[in-house]
């Protein structure tokens, strides 16, 4: 079971090659030594970043889907490259040695549905939640507005860590002799977006003011974060603010096809559920409760 990686969207590929690519190669060597040991790997949906639109799916060989990759200075290029390389190594090991492999391509892993204070305080989403409440500023929409100026319908892809872990444990332990890939994502076309999350925080009593102009919000947001106390500023979204340089394109439904993952959850059940969970207000508000427990708000 290989969930280990240096998850960093700023470092370049050459600095992630050692922990993420060589590390995977070392575990493959362990898996094929003496006796074949089924290999479960946690990858990322981000490996799709250099693929042609419409081709990315769970079944195809990553070596055919993305035969040539380009190293550049763009956001998360190094991390996506390193996880792509790990998948290529696993495909090679499967072909050469018959290594049974299950790959889970995950997107945003959210906090635990029940436990409070158990937050990944360095990830993009937690930083954003802290920053929105600490500054009291949010855009009218995180997404490009519709032609009539209204907030678009959109979906944010995230799954609670407890469901994510349960799915990996259950499906990764099946030990089939094949090479299987699952898109471990939230595929619901439910209209629950970052804008919805802000609505939920406002409904819960947090004083967050919406700014009509996205550019004005971004400028005020940066100024407000720089004025925060050092401890909050350190854990704010300020170091990753380039991720929000422009409003996002609204996406409805999953960021990638996930038919196989959806089907296997329906058939096998994961953690007592036969449907991939949707995000609700309780989980988003619990982020703020957890940040308060950690004395960050």
Key descriptive features of the protein:
297 residues; alpha/beta; three-stranded parallel beta sheet; two-stranded parallel sheet; globular
Walk me through this protein's architecture.
The chain is 40% helix and 10% strand. The model has no long low-confidence stretch (mean pLDDT 95). With 297 residues, the protein is α/β, with parallel strands linked by helices.
Major β-sheet profile: 3 strands, parallel
**Spatial order of the strands in the main sheet?**
1-2-6
H/E topology pattern: HEHHEEHEEHEHEHHHH
The number of distinct helices, counting runs of at least 4 residues, comes to 10
Using DSSP, what is the number of strands?
A: 7
Low-confidence stretches: none
Q: Which assembly state applies to the chains in this document?
A: single chain
Explain the layout of strands and helices.
Layout: H1 13-32, E1 39-44, H2 62-65, H3 77-97, E2 101-106, E3 108-110, H4 124-135, E4 137-139, E5 158-160, H5 161-172, E6 179-184, H6 194-203, E7 209-211, H7 214-226, H8 230-234, H9 259-268, H10 281-293
Parallel strand pairs: 1-2, 2-6, 3-5, 4-7
Helix pairs in contact: 1-3, 4-10
Compact summary:
The protein has helices spanning 13-32, 62-65, 77-97, 124-135, 161-172, 194-203, 214-226, 230-234, 259-268, 281-293; strands spanning 39-44, 101-106, 108-110, 137-139, 158-160, 179-184, 209-211. It has 297 residues and is α/β, with parallel strands linked by helices.
